[in-house]
Amino acid sequence: MGDQRGRKRRMSDVNVVTLSGRVVRTPEVRSAPSGNQVADLYLANNLYNRNGEQNTTFVRCTIWGKSAEFTGTLNKGDHVFVTGQLASDDYETTKGDPSSMTKGRMKVTNCKITLLGRKKEE
């Protein structure tokens, strides 16, 4: 199937991630060079098997704009619901050295966040 000029149209695949979990550490909101607010939220997602054994996955979520501002009100242990897109989280540990490239890490970007509950005070 093509457009009016005979070129093929490309259709994007679905890339939606939905998670709930506990905030691992209190997020810090910062300003990007563009002036937009951005925050990195680290989430612990717990799954339990039939025997009650816990398997925890730690996920980095990058949050922008008004949602990032809201993230600044969260504390370690708060229970949140996050939707976003899965993206690779490659980075270089040493500038210019190809052997220092870290691959295979994933993160969730373009996140929307909902507070499900605050950590209970002991």
Report on this structure:
The model has no long low-confidence stretch (mean pLDDT 85). Strand 2 and strand 3 form a beta hairpin. The strands form two sheets. Strands 1, 2, 3, 4, 5 and 8 form a six-stranded antiparallel beta sheet that branches. Helices cover 6% and strands 48% of the residues. It is globular. The protein has 122 residues and is mostly beta strands. The termini are far apart. It has one domain: Nucleic acid-binding proteins (OB fold (Dihydrolipoamide Acetyltransferase, E2P)).
Please tag this protein with its features.
single chain; 122 residues; mainly beta; OB fold (Dihydrolipoamide Acetyltransferase, E2P); six-stranded antiparallel β-sheet; two-stranded antiparallel ribbon; 1 helix; 8 strands
What does the secondary structure layout of this molecule look like, with pairings?
Elements: E1 17-23, E2 29-31, E3 37-48, E4 54-64, H1 65-71, E5 79-88, E6 91-92, E7 101-102, E8 106-117
